[in-house]
């Protein structure tokens, strides 16, 4: 006769509670697992979003920083002093014959000429005028003697009415190429600005204050170009004056005899049309122009021509024989086209 096991009521209750608990835990786990996965997904999405936001904000911040720097940074046309040999090492790498020559020339300036730093000058067709005028102002040099005796603001009209130079209306203001009946008014404003600035700088005794004012002036392109056009006109005026002296058989400096012996500058008009009008536009100053500039401003311009190292033309002066004990300023050039300012 078969035997049947009869389960006790207590066992059924335990089994039921176990089953219910297991199902509850399984449900709770599924719910918790879903919540965790959802939270992780949300966290990953948030991290990706913030990463993209960070990159976007970084790019925008970089753009704004650059914009503000460009907007408010002074665009100095004469830069601050840098170590001469460091500048040379940066600019003249490699083993080409020219690079080796330049390195030797810079070493000569550093060790034997005691030039320790250099100021880089903006490279354009005004840079020779810029290099000279910057040093005149930064050193606080006084007016040339002839400028103290004349009101240079009236010189444009003087050329027209006293000397009949009506061709001055063809004067060209560098890249502006402005000519016309109002040329005298424009020239007068340029010369007046030169007189005002020169008077102000020469009256400042503190070297650091002159330096700060130079940084302000030589970051204003509009004022700068007016000053350079004034210098060009001063050169033209001196050429005209010496030409008139030559016509009356007076003795004139040899550099002007050389100037008037050229077909392209046989008189002031041809000098202006063929040479001076191009300065600031398509070319800078030639060597003969540097002589005239030094003569007109009564300064001795010493130029270290680095590409002429180990030759007699390595160091030249404009003019070669100053008529008096004129103050001296120095330039350096690597090619006779662009100039920088050496600092002793």
Automatic annotation (TrEMBL):
<keyword id="KW-0812">Transmembrane</keyword>
<comment type="similarity">
    <text>Belongs to the peptidase C65 family. Otulin subfamily.</text>
</comment>
<protein>
    <submittedName>
        <fullName>OTU deubiquitinase with linear linkage specificity like</fullName>
    </submittedName>
</protein>
<keyword id="KW-0472">Membrane</keyword>
<keyword id="KW-0963">Cytoplasm</keyword>
<dbReference type="Pfam" id="PF16218">
    <property type="entry name" value="Peptidase_C101"/>
</dbReference>
<keyword id="KW-1133">Transmembrane helix</keyword>
<dbReference type="InterPro" id="IPR023236">
    <property type="entry name" value="OTULINL"/>
</dbReference>
<feature type="transmembrane region" description="Helical">
    <location>
        <begin position="31"/>
        <end position="50"/>
    </location>
</feature>
<dbReference type="InterPro" id="IPR023235">
    <property type="entry name" value="FAM105"/>
</dbReference>
<dbReference type="GO" id="GO:0005737">
    <property type="term" value="C:cytoplasm"/>
</dbReference>
């Amino acid at each position: 006769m078969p035997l049947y096991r009869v389960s006790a009521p207590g066992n059924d209750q335990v089994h039921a509670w176990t089953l219910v608990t297991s199902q509850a835990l399984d449900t709770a786990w599924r719910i918790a697992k879903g919540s965790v996965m959802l939270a992780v997904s949300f966290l990953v999405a948030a991290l990706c979003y913030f990463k993209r936001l960070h990159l976007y904000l970084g790019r925008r911040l970089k753009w704004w920083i650059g914009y503000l720097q460009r907007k408010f940074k002074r665009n100095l046309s004469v830069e601050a002093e840098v170590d001469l040999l460091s500048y040379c090492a940066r600019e003249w790498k490699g083993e080409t014959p020219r690079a080796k020559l330049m390195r030797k020339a810079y070493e000569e300036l550093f060790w034997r000429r005691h030039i320790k730093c250099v100021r880089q000058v903006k490279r354009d067709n005004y840079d020779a005028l810029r290099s000279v005028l910057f040093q005149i102002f930064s050193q606080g040099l006084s007016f040339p003697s002839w400028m103290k005796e004349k009101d240079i603001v009236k010189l444009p009209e003087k050329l027209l009415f006293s000397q009949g130079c009506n061709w001055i209306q063809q004067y060209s203001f560098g890249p502006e190429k402005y000519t016309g009946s109002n040329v005298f008014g424009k020239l007068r404003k340029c010369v007046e600005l030169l007189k005002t600035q020169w008077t102000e700088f020469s009256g400042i005794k503190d070297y650091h204050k002159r330096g700060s004012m130079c940084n302000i002036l030589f970051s204003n392109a509009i004022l700068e170009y007016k000053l350079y056009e004034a210098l060009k006109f001063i050169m033209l005026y001196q050429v005209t004056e010496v030409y008139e002296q030559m016509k009356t058989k007076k003795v004139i400096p040899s550099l002007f005899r050389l100037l008037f012996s050229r077909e392209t500058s046989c008189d002031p008009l041809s000098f202006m049309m063929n040479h001076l009008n191009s300065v600031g536009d398509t070319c800078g100053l030639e060597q003969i122009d540097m002589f005239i500039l030094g003569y007109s401003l009564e300064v001795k311009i010493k130029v270290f021509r680095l590409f002429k190292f180990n030759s007699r033309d390595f160091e030249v002066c404009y003019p070669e024989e100053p008529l008096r004990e004129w103050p001296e300023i120095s330039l350096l050039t690597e090619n006779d086209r662009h100039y920088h300012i050496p600092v002793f």
